[in-house]
Amino acid sequence: MAKILTGGVGKVEVAEAVRRLGLAGVDVAVSSDLDAAMLLRAGRADYYLGTCHTGAGASLGVLVGLMGRPACHTFGRGVPSADEAAALLGDGKRVFGFALDRAEAVAPVLARAISVRAE
Questions:
Q1: Domain boundaries, the chain
Q2: Angle 103-118/11-21 helices, nearest 10 degrees?
Q3: What 3-state class would DSSP assign to 88?
Q4: Phi (first) and psi of residue 41, to 5 degrees
Q5: Is the pLDDT of residue 105 over 80?
Q6: DSSP 3-71
Q7: Matching Pfam families, A to Z (predicted)?
Q8: Is 102 helix (H, G, I), strand (E, B) or coil?
Q9: Which pLDDT score, from 0 to 100, does residue 69 have?
Q10: What is the tens place of the pLDDT at every residue in 89-98?
């Protein structure tokens, strides 16, 4: 089971987008960025999906500071392919940021890639 936390300005929307997929092996919860960092560091959560208006950094500011840049990736306004999402997960990325207006496109790609890894 993979636990995904969502945060930022669109945390509820992202959580709903992931839940609608009905993916086996994925649990999603809404969180604050600080709580998410603590849960990730303690091993009580696996991934974080954060949103801001531009996807350029505010979505991950606290997480980058507490988890370290190597664990984080910001898509900005881009939308990853399934292969790109899988490669980032394979590289150990656990924290992802993206623009709020891309949430309906980005969150499902990431959640599906996470689900495959959780099998």
A1: 8-104
A2: 50
A3: helix
A4: -65, -30
A5: yes
A6: EEEEEETTHHHHHHHHHHH--TTEEEEE--HHHHHHHHHTTS--EEEEEESSSSSTTTHHHHHHH-GGG
A7: DUF2620 (PF10941)
A8: helix
A9: 93
A10: 999 999 999 9
Among 1, 4, 35, which Cα is nearest to 111's? 4
28 vs 77: CA distance, rounded Å: 23
**Residue 60 C-alpha from the chain's centroid:** 10
Residue type, 63: L
Residues whose CB falls within 8 Å of the CB of residue 83, separated by 6 or more in sequence, listed in order:
none
Contact 27, 18 (CB under 8 A): no
Contact assessment for residue 105 and residue 58, using Cβ atoms and an 8 Å cutoff: no
Residue 53 in this model has a pLDDT that exceeds 90: no
Which residues make Cβ contacts (< 8 Å) with residue 73, sequence separation at least 6? 88, 93, 95, 96, 97
**pLDDT of amino acid 45:** 98
* Average pLDDT along the chain: 94
